[in-house]
Amino acid sequence: MAKARVPAAVIAAGGLVGGYATARFTKKRPLGGVVLAAAGGVAAKEWQRRAGGKAAAALSGAYVAAFAGSHPLAKKVGAWPAVLGVAGVVGLASWAVADRRR
Questions:
Q1: Is the Cβ–Cβ distance between 40 and 60 less than 8 Å?
Q2: DSSP letter assigned to residue 102
């Protein structure tokens, strides 16, 4: 029986949302960072496996940029809309580059 794999897009988007939710609800920002970093690491491994090193590097850069960009965006649209927006962008990019081929 084949093992079902979670799409890298879900891991990456979930890491951004889960990292923020963890930090917000536990009031422990470092714990949110752990969630963010762990999901980013898993996603990067999947990107490498599915699409190669250049794609993994580009998507990892997008993941970090999304995290950083969500902060100033949150000042304009609110925290949750910012996090959900950047998670959607990263998830879509991941799907287009690494998951769509499956």
A1: yes
A2: -
